């Protein structure tokens, strides 16, 4: 079985949460699965980097902002790979460039054009858990590009489609998708299953659990996504083709 899991920033915010993600990956690996993790920057790292950039140059170029912000995911990937290694499993971290994520040239909001992914295939075949930095790729000039808000979701779905993964899981700080923010509205209703169209309608209405590009990409490839809590691991909300739900 081949499994892709994406972890958001709050799911990796401190060493304890990062080790929880590592343990989950190691358990799957021990059961014989090929495991690829896609990680966001830890906690408020991206916001902190944006503030630092504004202090240095409020009108800095988008190219340099991409080079700066991509570092947050790369640090997260390296730390996660280290945590996996500490548990006795082989792991390797990859940048978007090393993972072969080729994008257009729009800095700050790039779109994925194609994937080579040969390095990922090689590392999985070597028996390693692969940890890929989300939110980033590279353009024709070889420059780092970032994919915009929620870009790590798009990275995970793109890689799951490319690898023909059996499972694509998006781990967040909530236990699924609700009709409204459950942190603000205790009466919010959680969905067990949603079609792509229903999910896109929720996003258009302001839901921020998934990025619209990731849902569109999943629909293009007929890929089912599961959104679930990184803290409980309990079954969450499935998003996929209506006939398969």
Give an overview of the whole structure.
The protein has 245 residues and is α/β, with parallel strands linked by helices. It is built from 8 helices and 14 strands. It has helices at 15-30, 45-56, 62-86, 96-99, 118-125, 151-163, 196-204, 212-221, and strands spanning 2-7, 34-39, 91-94, 101-103, 112-115, 129-133, 136-138, 144-146, 167-172, 177-178, 190-191, 193-195, 225-229, 237-240. β4 (101-103) and β5 form a beta hairpin. The longest helix is centred in the N-terminal third of the chain and has 25 residues, at 62-86.
Which range does the strand content fall in? 15-25%
Unreliable residue runs: none
Radius of gyration: 17 Å
Oligomer: single chain
Distance between the termini: 21 Å
> Which strands sit side by side, in order, in the main sheet?
3-6-2-1-9-13-14-12
Structural class: alpha/beta
Number of helices: 8
Which outline best applies? Answer: globular
Proportion of residues in helical segments: 25-40%
SSE string, helices as H and strands as E: EHEHHEHEEHEEEHEEEEHHEE
What's the story with the biggest beta sheet?
8 strands, mixed
According to DSSP, the number of beta strands is 14
The average pLDDT value, as a whole number, equals 94
Features:
globular, single chain
Summarize the structure.
The protein is of the alpha/beta class and 245 residues long. It contains 8 helices and 14 strands.
Architecture blueprint of SSEs:
Layout: E1 2-7, H1 15-30, E2 34-39, H2 45-56, H3 62-86, E3 91-94, H4 96-99, E4 101-103, E5 112-115, H5 118-125, E6 129-133, E7 136-138, E8 144-146, H6 151-163, E9 167-172, E10 177-178, E11 190-191, E12 193-195, H7 196-204, H8 212-221, E13 225-229, E14 237-240
Parallel strand pairs: 1-2, 1-9, 2-6, 3-6, 9-13, 12-14
Antiparallel strand pairs: 4-5, 7-8, 10-11, 13-14
């Amino acid at each position: 079985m081949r499994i892709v899991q994406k972890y958001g920033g709050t799911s990796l915010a401190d060493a304890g949460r990062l080790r929880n993600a590592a343990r989950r990956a190691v358990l799957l690996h021990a059961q014989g699965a090929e495991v690829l993790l896609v990680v966001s920057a830890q906690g408020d790292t991206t916001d902190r980097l944006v503030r630092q950039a504004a202090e240095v140059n409020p009108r800095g170029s988008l190219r340099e902002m991409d080079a700066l912000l991509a570092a947050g995911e790369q640090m997260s990937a390296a730390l996660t790979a280290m945590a996996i290694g500490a548990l006795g499993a082989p792991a390797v971290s990859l940048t978007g460039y090393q993972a072969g994520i080729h994008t257009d040239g729009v800095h700050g909001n790039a779109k994925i054009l194609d994937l080579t992914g040969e390095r990922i295939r090689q590392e999985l075949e070597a028996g390693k858990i692969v940890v890929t930095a989300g939110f980033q790729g590279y353009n024709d000039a070889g420059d780092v590009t970032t994919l915009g808000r929620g870009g790590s979701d798009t990275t995970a779905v793109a890689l799951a489609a490319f690898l023909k993964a059996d499972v694509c899981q998006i781990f967040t700080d909530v236990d699924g998708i609700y009709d409204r923010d459950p942190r603000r509205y205790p009466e919010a209703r959680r969905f067990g299953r949603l079609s792509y169209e229903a999910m896109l309608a929720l996003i258009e209405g302001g839901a921020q659990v998934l990025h619209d590009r990731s849902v569109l990409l999943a629909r293009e490839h007929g890929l089912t996504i599961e959104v679930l809590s990184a803290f409980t691991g309990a079954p969450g909300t499935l998003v996929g083709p209506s006939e398969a739900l």
